[in-house]
Amino acid sequence: VWLVYHIPVGLTRGVWKNGRLSFQHYKLADGLPSLLLYFSKFDAKGRLWVGSDRGVAMLDGKSWIQYRRADGLIWDNSNHDAFGAEADGSVWVADYYNNRVVKLSSSGTVLYSIGGFYRPVSVAVNPNDRSVWVTDHYNHELVKLSSTGTELLRIGGFNYPHDVDVNPKDGTIWVSDHSNSRMVKLAPDGTVLLRI
């Protein structure tokens, strides 16, 4: 179990050991880029990634590897739920303040940088077809990209869409349509299936 806090105190890992839950706390001295973390997510290789106000970091099993401006990110600040992992170990990160999404290889090299967004908030990868779904917050749209960053579809009708996730069993997409106070379920082709 990994815990990210809504205050800048770092990251905590809970592990069952000898029938008891023990905790290990990670701070700057342990290699975190910042104590203010926005997300923690695993990639397909089981590595933990965290996004912060000072870049993105990946725990390779022993140490933290940091990715910042010098590594190809334009901005060091990520956003909540701004991460999607592909099966090959590559990851997508929403670069909120630079209005783009970035695909990093499993070694952290920037593969693609796609603009045309206005405050992308959330990223999800459909493992069935490797499509990438991005909530384009201030454009009030949901955007579907190919795994190489080609725009495939733009769906309007949202009011500040926030989080997006993909059901890996059937490929349906769920979006929190924030200012409409509802959840929207879509088919992989973008057809709206349900609004609740």
Question: Topology of this structure?
Answer:
Elements: E1 2-4, E2 11-17, E3 20-26, E4 37-42, E5 48-52, E6 55-59, E7 64-67, E8 83-85, E9 91-95, E10 100-104, E11 110-114, E12 120-125, E13 132-136, E14 141-145, E15 151-155, E16 161-166, E17 173-177, E18 182-186, E19 192-195
Antiparallel strand pairs: 1-2, 2-3, 4-5, 5-6, 6-7, 8-9, 9-10, 10-11, 12-13, 13-14, 14-15, 16-17, 17-18, 18-19
Description:
By secondary structure, the protein is mainly beta. 0% of the residues lie in helices and 49% in strands. The chain contains no helices and 19 strands. It has strands spanning 2-4, 11-17, 20-26, 37-42, 48-52, 55-59, 64-67, 83-85, 91-95, 100-104, 110-114, 120-125, 132-136, 141-145, 151-155, 161-166, 173-177, 182-186, 192-195. The strands form five sheets. A four-stranded antiparallel beta sheet has the order 4-5-6-7, with no helix packed on it. It has a four-stranded antiparallel beta sheet with strand order 8-9-10-11, with no helix packed on it. A four-stranded antiparallel beta sheet has the order 12-13-14-15, with no helix packed on it. It starts with a strand and ends with a strand. The model has no long low-confidence stretch (mean pLDDT 88).
Through-space gap between termini: 30 Å
Low-confidence stretches: none
Report the average pLDDT across residues.
88
SS-based class: mainly beta
Along the chain, the helix and strand elements come as: EEEEEEEEEEEEEEEEEEE
Compute the number of helices.
Answer: 0
Instruction: Give the strand order of the largest sheet, numbering strands 1, 2, ... along the chain.
Output: 4-5-6-7
